[in-house]
């Protein structure tokens, strides 16, 4: 009986294979073209969303400070990274924005580690004043990206 | 073993298993840091770095071993250049050890400075933390590997299995060039980072996984025609759904909002390949003629699609619907999905392949003793159940996190919320220990001399 059933299945699958080949190839090509098209459109409208006109050499340096200290080893930035420490894409706004965000973050980074028992510790990275300013400028720029109102809460 | 050059797969499999054990060990260290906070000598970021990087590396070792084993047999001829395969093994291993030691012994910033990251910055992004030079080396290894496989396939018999494997391997190598693109504009950098990560994990790697699964199922059932027909459907669905499925990584990184629609719709379709894989294994294995004595392989091969369907398919589908992802993105829920998806698709398929090929590579004769089999099956259950429970505990922690942190207006900061979930993190760590015991048992089964393997 199994053999018989397998035979039926076999011919059925064969039919699927022949009849779907054109559908398969055309949909694959369609989706690849769609991806490329959407990528082109995204590239065109992106400047209005990421505000790249505000990118300064300082912010670009700040991104490198961010990357070279493996911040995503604990934190997330726009939700990508590790989930051990808070989301930082909105940390500039969370910590006061133009009303002192810079000073809060700078003081925070300098005060690490807090050595409070039972609390996760952030290492002291000994960043120079230049690097600190660059990093904070980068975080400020990141907080201004139009992210469809993500994260849902100020807490990240 | 039909072709002597298949033997080059052996060191790859050994390295894969050894690095797997190390990777899980570092996972345990991270897990401890979630509950006991301060561990001397190693920071969370370093341990996490090694945990995730070694995962990718050992899976690559596993894929390479699988390809070197499968390709000669499917192409019906010796590997094009077995010497190259052995040389690439040592280069790859050296790169892995250097990178891991660099992470372990140097502060990350120093490692970046020494390797000249400032001249060509590619470091410090999730999964792409390796120094630029190491990435170049990795790319060279992938190119040599692709070349070797391609020459073997092109000169030999072409089957659906080896062609698919070839496409997966060459595709993986090609998309790796996106590892070198890191725009100073964060949004663009993130946009194209996914062209590597998405098309690896949900594209070319999935093709490799399907090819390995098809090969092992073919070896169990001996019916190539039916395997190839199923494979055609599975591959067709994988390729068509994965292309725009990339949209589910783009919801909140600063690109236009239509990506939420694109990503959500294609996330639903991305369930299909896993669904067909489940149908496939259950249809073909359900034959009374098949007499295959390596029960461990059968168990691995049957469970992989089921677990992949749950972990990568269903959990991934739920988590990547835009309205859900708005709340779950970047929380412990992501971690839960990541764990189960990686384990159920890639870890399990590599272990399936190793379970099938290793006894043959080690020239074990068929012995109906079965103690090694029992050990391996025990290891399978320990690992699979432990990982499922770990994912469950992390997901519960994630739901708690989302509720308190994002869905309510409680004035609790992140750290306080995390501390309130410590029970879940303890349970997860216990799950991790059980998983590690499973890994140890899995390794011990290789040191048991009597091992049966399947013949038809």
Q: Would you spell out the secondary-structure blueprint of this structure?
A:
The complex is a heterodimer of chains A (156) and B (456).
Chain A: H1 2-50, H2 57-68, E1 76-77, E2 80-81, H3 91-94, H4 101-111, H5 129-143
Antiparallel strand pairs in A: 1-2
Chain B: H1 9-36, H2 44-75, H3 82-105, H4 108-114, H5 132-155, H6 160-175, H7 186-221, H8 224-245, H9 258-269, H10 271-285, H11 295-319, H12 322-328, H13 332-361, H14 371-407, H15 414-419, H16 422-444
Helix/strand/pairing class of chain A, anyone?
mainly alpha
Number of helices of chain B: 16
- The shape of chain A is elongated
Helix-residue proportion of chain A: 55-70%
Spatial strand sequence of the major β-sheet of chain A = 1-2
Report on this model:
- The complex is a heterodimer of chains A (156) and B (456).
- With 156 residues, chain A is mainly α.
- Chain A folds into two domains: 1-50; 52-143, Orthogonal Bundle (Cytochrome Bc1 Complex, Chain D, domain 2).
- Chain A contains five helices and two strands; from the N terminus they run ααββααα.
- Chain A has a two-stranded antiparallel ribbon.
- In chain A, a hairpin with a 2-residue loop joins strand 1 and strand 2 (80-81).
- The model of chain A has no long low-confidence stretch (mean pLDDT 88).
- Helix content of chain B is 75%, strand content 0%.
- The mean pLDDT of chain B is 91.
- Chain B has 456 residues and is mainly α.
- Chain B is globular.
- In chain B, helix 8 (224-245) runs antiparallel to helix 10 (271-285) and helix 14 packs antiparallel against helix 16 (422-444).
- Chain B has a domain at 1-182: Cytochrome C Oxidase, Chain A, CATH 1.20.210.
- At the A-B interface, helix 1, helix 2, strand 1 and strand 2 of A face helix 2, helix 4, helix 7, helix 8 and helix 9 of B.
């Amino acid at each position: 009986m199994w053999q018989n059933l397998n035979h039926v299945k076999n011919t059925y699958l064969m039919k699927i294979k022949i009849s779907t080949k054109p559908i398969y190839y055309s949909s694959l090509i369609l989706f690849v073209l769609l991806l490329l098209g959407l990528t082109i459109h995204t590239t065109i409208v992106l400047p209005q969303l990421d505000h790249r006109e505000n990118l300064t050499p300082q912010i670009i340096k700040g991104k490198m400070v961010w990357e070279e200290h493996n911040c995503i080893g604990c934190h997330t930035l726009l939700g990508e990274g590790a989930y051990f420490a808070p989301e930082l894409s909105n940390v500039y706004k969370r910590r006061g924005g133009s009303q002192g965000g810079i000073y809060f973050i700078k003081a925070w980074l300098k005060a690490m580690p807090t050595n409070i028992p039972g609390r996760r510790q952030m290492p002291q990275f000994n960043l120079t004043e230049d690097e600190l300013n660059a990093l904070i400028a980068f975080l400020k720029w990141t907080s201004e990206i139009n992210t469809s109102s993500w994260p849902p809460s100020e807490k990240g | 073993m039909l072709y002597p050059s298949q033997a080059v797969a052996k060191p790859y499999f050994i390295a894969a298993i050894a690095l797997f054990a190390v990777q899980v060990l570092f996972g345990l260290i991270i897990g401890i840091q979630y509950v006991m906070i301060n561990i001397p000598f190693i920071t969370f970021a370093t341990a996490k770095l090694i945990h995730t990087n070694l995962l990718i590396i050992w899976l690559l070792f596993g894929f390479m071993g699988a390809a070197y084993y499968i390709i000669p047999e499917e192409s019906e001829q010796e590997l094009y250049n077995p010497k190259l395969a052995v040389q690439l093994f040592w280069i790859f291993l050296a790169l892995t050890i250097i990178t891991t030691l660099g992470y372990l012994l140097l502060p990350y910033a120093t490692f970046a400075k020494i390797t000249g990251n400032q001249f060509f910055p590619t470091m410090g992004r999730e999964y792409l933390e390796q120094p630029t030079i190491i990435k170049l080396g990795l790319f060279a290894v992938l190119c040599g590997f692709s070349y070797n496989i391609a020459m073997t396939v092109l000169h030999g018999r072409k089957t659906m299995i080896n062609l698919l494997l070839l496409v997966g391997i060459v595709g993986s190598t090609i998309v790796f060039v996106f590892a070198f693109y890191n725009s100073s504009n964060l949004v663009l950098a993130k946009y194209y980072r996914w062209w590597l990560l998405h098309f690896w994990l949900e594209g070319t790697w999935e093709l490799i996984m399907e090819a390995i699964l098809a090969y092992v199922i073919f070896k169990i059932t001996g019916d190539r025609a039916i395997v190839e027909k199923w494979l055609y459907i599975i591959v067709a669905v994988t390729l068509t759904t994965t292309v725009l499925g990339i949209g589910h990584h783009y919801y909140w990184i600063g690109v236009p909002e239509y990506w939420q629609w694109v990503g959500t719709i294609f996330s639903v379709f991305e369930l299909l390949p896993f669904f067909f894989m489940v149908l496939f294994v259950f249809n073909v294995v359900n034959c009374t003629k098949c007499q295959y004595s390596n029960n461990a392989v059968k168990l691995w091969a049957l469970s992989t699609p089921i677990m992949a369907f749950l972990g990568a398919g269903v959990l991934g589908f739920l988590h990547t619907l835009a309205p859900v992802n708005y709340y779950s993105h970047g929380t412990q829920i992501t971690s839960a999905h990541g764990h189960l998806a990686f384990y159920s698709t890639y870890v399990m398929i590599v272990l399936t392949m190793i379970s099938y090929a290793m006894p043959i590579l080690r020239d074990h004769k068929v012995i109906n003793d079965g103690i090694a089999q029992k050990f391996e099956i025990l290891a399978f259950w320990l690992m699979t159940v432990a990982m499922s429970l770990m994912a469950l505990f992390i997901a519960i922690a994630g739901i708690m996190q989302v509720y308190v942190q994002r869905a309510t207006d409680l004035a609790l900061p992140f750290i306080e919320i995390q501390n309130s979930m410590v029970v879940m993190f303890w349970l997860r760590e216990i799950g991790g220990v059980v998983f590690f015991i499973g890994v140890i048992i899995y390794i011990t089964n290789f040191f048991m001399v009597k091992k049966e393997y399947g013949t038809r």
